[in-house]
Amino acid sequence: MDRLWITAALAGAEVTPQEQPHLPLTADDLAAEAARCREAGAAIVHLHVRDAEGRPTQDRAAFAAAIELIRRRTDLIIQVSTGGAVGMTAAERGQPLALRPEMATLTCGSVNFGDGVFLNPPEVIEHFARTMREFGVKPEVEVFDAGMVANALNLVKQGLLDPPLHFDFVLGVPGGMPASAANLVYLAGLVPAGSTWSVAGVGRHELSLGTMAIAMGGHVRVGFEDNIYYRKGELATSNAQLVARMARIGRELDRPPATPDEVRSALGIG
User: Fold this and answer.
1) pLDDT at residue 201, as a whole number
2) Domains of the chain, with CATH numbers?
3) Three-state SS string across the chain, please?
4) Which pTM does this prediction carry?
């Protein structure tokens, strides 16, 4: 099977230092953690940033600072989040796209998200898709429920997305599609031939669904954005620790980690 693409989601917008003391917050922290993840086997870094008080922000300058330091230290594909945090406007969320990163997330629908609602009405999805095309950014289609796959395929019909697509199935968010083996198999079956997919299992499901994805020919996302534990009751010491575990499992299943350049070639970017 193809080499395994490992994405490291370093910080997210929801986790706090009180929950995970090793959470990287500053640009320097993010770059150092990205370098460790690259060494452990990651090919892509999924990037959220925080402000000086540790609060989630989509500020263009904050992203620019983190991206510059990550590029100095690694050859990782940098994938910026356009999700930001629940409650942010589309204008806020889209700021890092102007930096022309290699990749960015494109969530193709709205979903209940814990106590909030992650709003992505059609006009917002289409706006982000057009902006990514304008700036030459490869979208990663974020899927929190099955209908979002159909929404992405409709964007292809509209000429707003170019196949092959790359999907990321985020399973286990309270309010979204539950994290189960049956749901992962179902979603993978919706992916058109030639396109690729990864899974981000939330919490304890990161390991089980990630292992399942490797066996199925998919790819994986791990990191503190989705899961702060190494095993039940034991906090992970770094994002790299979670990356290294998936890399080991991949090697055991004859799917060693792909390099960033191998993923670039497969995605047609760079």
Assistant:
1) 98
2) 6-267 (3.20.20.70)
3) CCCECEEEECCCCCCCCCCCCCCCCCHHHHHHHHHHHHHHCCCEEEECEECCCCCEECCHHHHHHHHHHHHHHCCCEEEECCCCCCCCCHHHHCHHHHHCCCEEEEECCCEEECCEEECCCHHHHHHHHHHHHHHCCEEEEEECCCHHHHHHHHHHHCCCCCCCCEEEEEECCCCCCCCCHHHHHHHHHHCCCCCEEEEEECCCHHHHHHHHHHHHCCEEEECCCCCCEEECCEECCCHHHHHHHHHHHHHHCCCCECCHHHHHHHHCCC
4) 0.97
